[in-house]
Amino acid sequence: MNTIKIVGLLTLLTLILIAAARVFFGPGAVLPALLISLVLNFGTWWFSDRIALSFAGAKPVTGAEAPELYRIVGRVAETAGLPTPRIFVIDQPAPNAFATGRDPQHAVVAVTRGILDIVTERELTGVLAHELGHVRNRDTFVMAVVASVAGAISYMAQMAQWSMWFGGGDRDDRDSGSLGMIGMILGIILLPLAAMLVQLAVSRSREYGADDEGAALTHDPLALASALRKLETYGKKIPLPVNPSVAPLFIVQPLLPGGLGGLFSTHPPIEERIARLEKLAGAELPARF
Fold first, then answer.
1. What is the pTM of this model?
2. How far is CA 235 from the centre of its chain?
3. CA dihedral over 49, 53, 54, 59, signed as positive or negative
């Protein structure tokens, strides 16, 4: 059912892209918009790991530099039937982690120094199982496609806005004067918002799926639940200075510099995620860790 939901959301996002091209630039722009979207998707898919790692400030580490991290990642990858991903560390005190890469053979797992400082081995295993759950479910590919299409819609809206300011006369004539202008303004406002809401829905669904996958890999849902509680508590206090475009990749919503957590969260509420994991475990976490 979750796969059907994701396919439906991706279809909806594509329809929004077509509608945006039609509203902003007329019927003749639909096919070029789809072609541009395909090019963007391919580029994002091929370079997604390098882009994300660069924006997050992640650096590779060797087995000698992080032996425990390598041991845990290798063990979880073996359990999941996946190749051991490349391992990177982000030199930041905010506790967090993410996975990226176009497929399991090119997967990358990145963790912050902060998460290594505050979680136990059991909790770290739960976090890494969640991230490898993303890899196993091909979420990194799905989210790259979603981000590129949503970005294309936002870019078209910006182009339409500039066109309206500096060349609105032709557009008005083509779309029947004031009615066309009203439609253009509504499109500029509503279509990128609709794309963003679809992106949020996909992201949240993927997080729930990775939680379930991680719990199944470790047979220890409470380990991930305990880690999530810690990450939320510490993450609310310590900003993570990364590019906002990679914020949806992290296991918990990072606090961006300036205190910005995002008007719309790309992640489900932590308490809901913990409650789902407690239900899987048939037990509850202690009130405090």
1. 0.78
2. 17
3. negative
Instruction: In whole angstroms, give the CA distance from residue 54 to residue 246.
Output: 10
How would you label 44-77 residue by residue, b for 16+ Cβ within 10 Å and e otherwise?
bbeebbebbbeebbbeebeeeebeebbebbeebb
CB 128 within 8 A of CB 276: no
Give the chain's residues under pLDDT 70: 1-3, 5-7, 9-10, 37, 40-41, 44-45, 144, 147-148, 163-181, 257-265, 288-289
207: annotated active-site residue: no
Contact 114, 95 (CB under 8 A): yes
Give every CB contact of residue 234 below 8 A, 6+ residues apart in sequence. Answer: 94, 95, 114, 118
Catalytic residue among 123, 131, 207, 232: 131
CB atoms within 10 A of CB 174: 11
Residues 188 and 175: their CA atoms lie apart, in Å, by 15
Query: pLDDT tens across 171-198, in order?
Result: 444 454 455 667 777 777 777 777 777 7
